[in-house]
Amino acid sequence: MQTSAYKNYQRQEVEGATKGKIVVLLFEGAIKFLRIACKNIDEKNIQDSHNNIVKAENILYELMSTLNMDAGEIAENLMKLYDFMIWQLIEANRDKDKNKINSVIELLTPLKDAWKEVVEKEAISVVKKPVEKSEIKSINFAG
Fold first, then answer.
1. What structural domains and CATH numbers belong to the chain?
2. Closest to 56 measured CA to CA, from 110, 101, 7
3. What whole-number distance in Å separates Cα of residue 68 and Cα of residue 108?
4. Which residues contact 112 (CB under 8 A, 6 or more apart)?
5. 44 to each of 74, 88, 131, 133, how far by Cα in Å?
6. What is the mean pLDDT of each run of 10 residues along the chain (143 residues)?
7. CA-based torsion, 73, 78, 81, 86: positive or negative
8. Ramachandran angles phi, psi of 130, nearest 5°
9. pTM of the model
10. Which of 44, 34, 51 is nearest to 100 (CA)?
């Protein structure tokens, strides 16, 4: 029962999320899967380490596919960085190399933190946005 409620909460969080929040969730997911993969390697659980590395790779592919390449140099650099991280993960998966996995986590973490900051600032600006008179609707309590 509790698992069902948690999955429902997660689904609602994603469905109601802004694009920025979804990017943060993707970064968090990739980092989570990579940490699990490191644990799997320690436990000599080769199949699960492989599966979790592939999940992280798939998230990076998703992040690549959503880049707006018209944005210029930033998008191009992110594309190169994601490509590098995927290559590191392919090698890490082949060699079961936790150092390469950890290097990708170290690259993902500041990106996640930067996106999280942007999302939080965006949320604050929405809350602080002044209400326009045209947005105020009067309610007739008299009937």
1. 18-127 (1.20.120.340)
2. 101
3. 19
4. 24, 27, 28, 31
5. 39, 20, 58, 64
6. 63 70 96 98 98 98 95 95 98 98 98 95 71 54 47
7. negative
8. -70, 145
9. 0.78
10. 34
